[in-house]
């Protein structure tokens, strides 16, 4: 029920994070960080546009024109993609829906803001690596150095499991079972857990890596940085770029396109699909909540098969046209 005196915007923001996200929804730290970054960007932009401090901004100030200008600022000034713009808008919508239950006086402003649509964009073809290319990347790190051994184990685990970067950098030693049937236990979006079997080669690399770091306790980070802490997304991307640069000496095609940790995830999915694995199993493997998300790999695979089919057609095979003989024409004319 709405309060008699509507709370201020700073109060709403604090309650949104502490009560709504923290207590009621119990979202992950990554989700909290995404909402936090969005509201920081929005409040900083609004403060500059309205010539006020962020604490002096009110909920009616966050009207549709200001939000549209903010979204335009994200694309044009910050260089964000349409996908990032839509993610920011989705976070703002969540906050405004929460605020609408506590400030009825601003309901009209909130409704107009919620009417701002997500922006449509062209979805590019799923990018993935061939088997020789991913093999070259997995072999690229220096097996004689500490960082190289870690990277070889890390990249092999990424390709084996198709895990997200956040799942990899948060993995602890206890999350990998190496006895019996080796498997990795992953915690994905929405705190959903899943187990993925490990190949023998991956399990052997993990065993070797654990011996390298002194067989740490179960709570220890499996793939730490030099100081023993958790790697960041940028750390993983940087190390992958180094491996791609090394592998590109023998596979120049790798240097012609961007290869990100998510490309490795796409590669896992496409190789599973091409090996005949059912799409529902791939969805479970990747931790997709909806199999519709996984269908983009089927579409990509069909598109590539069509391109291959077109290449098989002889270019000189132009369709001919049947011309009836004079005798046939005479017969038809006599009917």
Brief summary:
This protein is mainly α and 335 residues long. The chain has helices spanning 9-24, 29-50, 64-76, 82-100, 107-114, 131-139, 146-161, 165-169, 200-212, 233-247, 261-274, 279-286, 291-312, 326-334; strands at residues 176-177, 183-187, 193-197.
Task: Provide an overview of this structure.
With 335 residues, this protein is mostly helical. It has two domains: 9-115, DNA polymerase, domain 1, CATH 1.10.150; 131-258, hpI Integrase, Chain A. It contains 14 helices and three strands. Strands 1-2-3 form a three-stranded antiparallel beta sheet, with no helix packed on it. A hairpin with a 5-residue loop joins strand 1 (176-177) and strand 2. Helix 4 (82-100) packs antiparallel against helix 5 and helix 7 (146-161) packs across helix 11 (261-274). 27% of the residues are buried.
In total, how many domains does the architecture comprise?
2
> In percent, how helical is the residue content?
55-70%
Shape: flat
**CATH class term of the largest domain:** Mainly Alpha
Strand proportion: under 5%
CATH superfamily of the largest domain: Intergrase catalytic core
**Low-pLDDT stretches:** none
Q: Give me the secondary-structure category.
A: mainly alpha
Q: What would CATH call the architecture of the largest domain?
A: Orthogonal Bundle
| Tally of DSSP β-strands | 3
Mean pLDDT: 87
Distance between the termini: 88 Å
The neighbouring-strand order within the major sheet is 1-2-3
Topology as a string of helices (H) and strands (E) = HHHHHHHHEEEHHHHHH
Radius of gyration: 27 Å
Number of helices: 14
Task: Say what the CATH topology of the largest domain is.
Answer: hpI Integrase, Chain A
